Please model this.
Amino acid sequence: MEEAKNIGSPLILGIDTSCDDTSAAVVADGKRILSNIVSSQSDIHKKYGGIVPELASRRHIEMIWPVVEEALSSAGVTLDDIAAIAVCHGPGLIGSLLVGCGFAKAAAYAKNKPVVAVNHLEGHIFSVFLEGSPEFPFLSLIASGGHTSLSIVNGFGQYTELGRTRDDAAGEAYDKVAKLLGLGYPGGPVIDNLAQEGNPKAFDFPRAYVPESFDFSFSGLKTAVKSAVSRKPSAASDAGFIKDIAASFQAAVVDVLVRKVEWAIVKKGIKRVTLSGGVSANSELRRRFQEMAEEREIELFLPSISFCTDNAAMIAAAGYHHFKAGDIAGIDLNPKAYLPLYGCSLTKDSASFGTD
Model:
């Protein structure tokens, strides 16, 4: 399309199938979103109280091409206009990742386009650049269903981990507590809503600050909630009790996340903070971080709610930098369920895709 030449260059097609959402996006210059399509699977998995990996991967197979087609159409471009295809290759559910990687490689081979592999956590970090431009270095807190980590970002590809969860991720704890309370899946939004009507001091749930460490731990909190519920036989029918549990649980999670970032600000002397991942959509967490930012006079970068959860625009944003650096993946690219962000740089492969 002739008009595509005036949209911005280069155009990156992002693909994310890391978990239960099928997403494709077209992003210009690593920051300007031309389209960002997300097909949710929540209706499929909610009856099970969590994600069923086999069902997730089968749904991705059904939706990947329609979602990519819609992303291209919404952006007013074709695959011929795309400079590179950026795909999330981990971490995540291996069956789901296989669908995205397989599609990306097939499309890249058919159109002689380069493909770049993006770490899902790196995508979350660079989601804030879709709406803002934080200067390096900055502190990055990723809080999602599968990950909770705190890092220093000195530049693209320059990440220093300060701490990560030792057990459950923050979002995982939300889902498990919601299931325990019979609130359904996903648990984050429903607990957030109920917490607004509950008493956050009704239950003195533990805060695992893990002294002398930036690491996180939420499994003990989840166990404490389970114990509180087991002591009240009529818990399921007591709306006030459920709201108080939700508010007290949420307060414990938020306290730990905010406090750890505060420690990092003081100890590392960095006054720029970004928050990303699905849990960053939580209203109480956003309120507390904004409050903390004002008190400590720091710059806070919060993505819009639509960019908190998994999406392909953030994969395209990070992929743009890989493409600029010539970090092209080979045709033998395979997904990885476990893929640390730190010390895991991609290497060029002689069996690479084209770069027309």
